[in-house]
Amino acid sequence: MGKNNHAISGVFVFLLLGIFAIFSTIMVVMGAKAYRGMVERSDTHNSIRVASSYIRTMLRSNDEAGVLRVEDVDGVQTITMENDWGDIYVTRIYIYEGKLREWFAMAEIPFVPGNGETVCNLDSMKAELKDGLLHVVVSENGTEMEIDYAPRTAGQAGGEE
To answer: Is 103 a domain residue?
Structure first.
C-alpha cells in the first residue's frame, strides 16, 4: 500500500502543478491584452493632444489679419497660412496617409502632400472657417476633439492691434 500511496500523491502534486501552470498562463495572457489596450488608448489620446496643441500653436504663431484660410488643394483639405516675410511663404496643416502633416515652403513651390513633415498619427481632420472663426475636428481611432480658434486679428487690416 505504500507504493500506491506515493503514486497517488505524485499524481496529485503533478495535477496541482499543471493547474497552476494553466492559470498562470491565462493570467499572463489576460494581463498582456489589458496592457495592449491601455497602450492603444494612451497612444490615441496622445495623438489627439499633440494634434490639438500643434494646431493651436501654429494658429497663434501666424495670427495676422488675412493670413488664415481653409482650402482644398488637389483633394486634400488644408488649414493654410500665407505670410509675407519679404517673400511669400505658405504653411499648410493637413492629413495625408493617416498622419497630420505640415508643409512649409515658398508660395511658388507646388504642394506635394507626401513631402510634408509628419507631426503625429491622425485619422482625420475637418476644418471650417466661418465668420472669422476656425472650427477644427480631429479624430484618431474613433476619439474626436474639437478645436475652436478665434484669431485675435480677425477683421483687422494689416494684423495690427
So the answer is: yes
pTM tops 0.90 = no
The count of domains in the chain is 1
Residue 5 pLDDT level (bands cut at 50, 70, 90): low
Note down the domain range covering 95: 41-159
50 inside domain: yes
DSSP code, position 159? G
**What distances in angstroms separate CA 142 from CA 95, 138, 145, 152, one per listed residue?**
16, 10, 10, 32
For residue 54, tell me if it sits in a domain.
yes
Residue 150 lies in a domain: yes
Which candidate, 81, 82, 83, 113, places its Cα nearest to that of 100? 113
Amino acid letter at 17?
L
DSSP assignments along 27-62, one per residue:
HHHHHHHHHHHHHHHHHHHHHHHHHHHHHHHHHHHT
Condensed to tens digits (0 to 9), the pLDDT of residues 8-17 reads 777 888 888 8
pLDDT digits (tens, 9 = 90+) for 14-48: 888 899 899 888 888 888 888 787 777 666 667 88
